Amino acid sequence: MKLLRQRANILSLVRSFFAQRDFLEVETPLLVPSPGLDLHLEAFEVGTRSAARYLITSPEYQMKRLLADGYARIFQIAKCFRKGELGDRHNPEFTMLEWYRANAGIDDVMRDTEDLVAMVTGGRVTLGERTIDTRTPVERWTVCEAFERFAGIGEDETLELAKDDEDRYFELMVDAVEPGLAALEHAVFLVDYPASQASLARKRPDDPRVAERFELYVGGIELCNGFGELVDPVEQRSRLERDRAERAARGLPVYPIDERFIDALKTVPPSGGNALGVDRLVALVCGETEIHDVMAFTVDDL
Question: Crossing angle, helix 278-285 and helix 106-121, to 10 degrees?
Fold first, then answer.
């Protein structure tokens, strides 16, 4: 039996959480001119009469344009699409909760995140015979601390691997770090990602070797990916052009740069944002680590 009533109740709690904090719920398009240039994501292309369009991998670009228009606290529960993602915790079509705070930073969004998860889970998650503590405040570990603890390598080597040997970096993350996090009896934030893994996050002003990026792990499940947002249009364009070149070098699809997004960054104030996987959160609340039972239909059901 699909756990659809539980899912509906959780979504109602999520909406109530943001309404109480004076966030505006918004809806942005699913078909966009650019799905982003993240090297690890591939989009679905949809032909239109005028130009190619893509199903969103995230609503980020358009939500940041709303920040530029003066909407200071916004959230969205959006359908997103990522080609080739299929498994116990992945589906090509999935639900993302994404929110942004203008005139705020990474710490503000991390507090939102831990408060939301604690509220929705009631402070704990039960997985089989294990109970995972999700009460606030959630402990914070830097990525380098996690690599030292679980992979046995120091800060300098971790940062070098992330920059010069990404395959090895991700191998250690998957084979050593994430199993270590899965064994913890409490939720944990990973923070201070290597600058080469910054994505759309800004670098830390006091340590540009790392970025203002965080992920929340509960029972080894990565729930979200949040940033102190990069709002410098010059640096953002430079990163996107670099990613376009790298995608071409790897033989990956090369998507356009969204010029309206770049232009909007000129007026986006300092902001923080987060993208949280709704299907994974619902599964955890229901005592599951796989998402298929909390979705009405996965791609395999069609």
Answer: 40
Provide the whole-model pTM. 0.96
Domains of the chain with bracketed CATH: 4-123+240-301 (3.30.930.10)
Please enumerate in sequence order all residues whose Cβ is within 8 A of that of 20, keeping only pairs 6 or more positions apart, or say none. Answer: none
8 Å CB contact between 62 and 32: yes
On the 0-12 / 13-18 / 19+ scale of CB atoms within 10 A, 289 is middle
Question: What residues form DSSP beta bridges with 207?
Answer: 204
Q: Return left, alpha or beta for 127; rule: phi > 0 is left, psi -120 to 50 is alpha, else beta.
A: beta
As a whole number of angstroms, the distance between CA 30 and CA 79 comes to 8
Enter the DSSP assignment of 187: -
Kindly state the tokens that stand for 230: 């990069």
The amino acid at residue 105 is G
Query: Pairing between strand 139-142 and 188-194?
Result: parallel
Asked, as a colleague might, if the bond just before 137 is cis with ω within 30 of 0, I would say yes
Tallying the residues shown for the chain, one arrives at: 302
Q: Are 32 and 56 in contact (CB under 8 A)?
A: yes
- At 157-197, the pLDDT tens digits run 999 999 999 999 999 999 999 999 999 999 999 999 999 99
Tokens of 109: 């969004």
Residues 262 and 62: beta-carbon distance below 8 Å: no
